[in-house]
């Protein structure tokens, strides 16, 4: 039966039809609620609240035994202690960190593969290599920067200069006579030398080697006038009188090397030569896992014993949020590109 609505001119269904409509509405609302709960459940599953529930692989794009071991193993040991899960170091050295970076770029986006990356990996390689098997801007999820590693300029014991001022005077008097060694063309050490030439208005002779060890040995043996590398690498030779510090390539003195003047106090404010290290995982990893990794790594680097060991080796601990680290890498890549272009470095 159809009845006239006494409150309007429309019609309404019978009680039976009205009940059916209400039931249909309830079904629709219930279905919507179930869909929302399922979506939330899917997000929670992706976030993996039990993370990590199995070992985590930590890819290091360098051979074992170097200074990167101090960083990676120091972090890995403390993560393992926090989680009660193994963190396994996987050293994949070679090809200017490309081998390790490619492995990280192909990992599953689940947070069970993290990797140590450097300025070479993310800022230099894209500008000096024609083809890379990874995209630094798209293949990785930033977690945090972990350390900055300022270099020192150290000269052979018999070099005719012993500070920045006398280095500039000698290099201007004899353009190209001052040679310096680095671990290779296009390395962060090499870029430090290019910046030094630019800032001081001098001409130096770059001599590349395959690694910091051979580059330092060349300075010790007098094959080159000086070397640009990490303080921990040259410290034994300085103690033995075979090399001498010219300056720490930073605005301030390093707390672990208080007797070494900085370039900032030697007439080069704003000049910095060094490299940074950070930790990333595969792009697409759930934000909850990325944030967990960030918090845990920052916590690991707050450990007093690890901080002391890193500082003694010449590292400065620097951490950021994932978003801040992402912005930092984008800006750094652009800055390095300008330096490389101005230096006329060729693509490989």
Describe this structure in words.
α2 (67-83) crosses α9 (287-301) and α4 (119-128) packs across α11 (322-343). The chain folds into two domains: 56-149 and 274-343, D-Maltodextrin-Binding Protein, domain 2 (3-Layer(aba) Sandwich); 150-266, D-Maltodextrin-Binding Protein, domain 2 (3-Layer(aba) Sandwich). The chain has eleven helices and twelve strands. It is 45% helix and 19% strand. Strands 3, 4, 5, 6, 7, 8, 9, 10, 11 and 12 form a ten-stranded mixed beta sheet that branches. 37% of the residues are buried. The chain is α/β, with parallel strands linked by helices and 348 residues long. The model is unreliable at 1-23 and 25-46 (pLDDT under 50).
What attributes characterize this protein structure?
about 350 residues, D-Maltodextrin-Binding Protein, domain 2, ten-stranded mixed sheet, 12 strands, alpha/beta
Structural class category: alpha/beta
State the helicity in percent bands.
40-55%
Note the total helix count: 11
Strand % is: 15-25%
- Low-pLDDT runs: 1-23, 25-46
Shape descriptor reads globular
CATH top level of the largest domain is Alpha Beta
Rg over alpha carbons: 29 Å
Q: What's the order of the H and E elements?
A: EEHEHEHEHEHEHEHEHEEHHEH
CATH homologous superfamily label of the largest domain: Bordetella uptake gene, domain 1
Question: What do the pLDDT scores average to?
Answer: 85
Topology, number of strands: 12
Report how far the terminal alpha carbons are from each other: 86 Å
Count of folded domains: 2
The main pleated sheet reads as: 10 strands, mixed
The CATH architecture classification of the largest domain is 3-Layer(aba) Sandwich
CATH fold category name of the largest domain: D-Maltodextrin-Binding Protein, domain 2
């Amino acid at each position: 039966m159809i009845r006239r609505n006494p409150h309007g001119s429309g019609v309404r269904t019978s009680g039976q039809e009205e009940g059916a409509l209400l039931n249909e509405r309830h079904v629709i609302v219930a279905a919507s609620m179930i869909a929302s709960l399922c979506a939330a459940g899917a997000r929670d599953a992706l976030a993996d609240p039990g993370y990590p529930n199995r070992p985590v692989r930590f890819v290091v794009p360098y051979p074992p035994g170097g200074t990167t071991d101090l960083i990676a193993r120091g972090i890995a040991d403390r993560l393992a202690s926090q989680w009660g899960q193994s963190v396994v170091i996987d050293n994949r050295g070679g090809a200017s960190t490309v081998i390790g970076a490619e492995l990280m770029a192909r990992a599953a986006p689940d947070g069970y593969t993290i990797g140590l990356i450097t300025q070479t990996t993310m800022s230099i390689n894209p500008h000096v290599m024609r083809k890379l098997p990874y995209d630094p801007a798209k293949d990785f999820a930033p977690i945090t920067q972990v350390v900055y590693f300022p270099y020192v300029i150290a000269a052979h014991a018999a070099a005719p200069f012993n500070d920045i001022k006398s280095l500039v005077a000698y290099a201007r008097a004899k353009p190209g006579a001052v040679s310096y060694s680095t671990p290779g063309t296009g390395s962060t050490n090499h870029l430090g030398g290019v910046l030094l030439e630019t800032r001081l208005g001098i001409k130096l002779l770059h001599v590349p080697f395959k690694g910091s060890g051979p580059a330092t040995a060349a300075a010790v043996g007098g094959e080159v006038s000086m070397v640009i590398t990490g303080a921990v690498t040259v410290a034994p030779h300085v103690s033995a009188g075979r090399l001498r510090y010219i300056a720490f390539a930073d605005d301030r003195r390093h707390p672990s090397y208080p007797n070494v003047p900085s370039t900032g106090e030697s007439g080069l404010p704003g000049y910095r030569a060094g490299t940074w290290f950070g930790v990333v995982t595969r792009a697409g990893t759930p934000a909850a896992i990325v944030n967990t990794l960030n918090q845990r790594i920052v916590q690991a680097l707050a450990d007093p014993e690890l901080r002391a060991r890193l500082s003694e080796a010449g590292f400065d601990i620097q951490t950021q949020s994932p978003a801040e680290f992402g912005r930092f890498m984008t800006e750094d890549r652009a800055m390095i590109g300008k330096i490389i272009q101005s230096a006329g470095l060729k693509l490989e």
